[in-house]
Specification:
0% strand, mainly alpha, 85 residues
Length: 85
């Protein structure tokens, strides 16, 4: 029953482990999946709801957005003046 959602679930896992783009609210919803383990219909509805809200390929879009961002390196130098005691 979860087979049609396999790619989406893998994408969620990849996001959680590597990217961290999900909101706290969405992470709480995913953490609550364990409450649905004995209620397959409710679990499937929750997964489908997340898929509809986030989009089936939301992480691919986020990866593309991250590629287009320019990376900056900021170097700071602290000057310490020696004050006589």
């Amino acid at each position: 029953e979860l087979e049609p959602h396999r790619n989406f679930i893998r994408m969620l896992l990849e996001d959680i482990c590597d990217y961290g783009t999900l909101s706290d609210y969405t992470l709480r919803r995913i953490a609550n999946f364990e409450h649905y383990l004995n209620k397959r219909d409710a679990l499937l509805r929750e997964i489908e709801s997340l898929k509809k809200e986030l989009g089936e390929d939301y992480l691919y879009k986020e990866k593309e957005r991250l590629k287009s961002l320019a990376k900056e390196i900021i170097i700071a130098i602290e000057n310490r003046a020696k004050i006589p005691l």
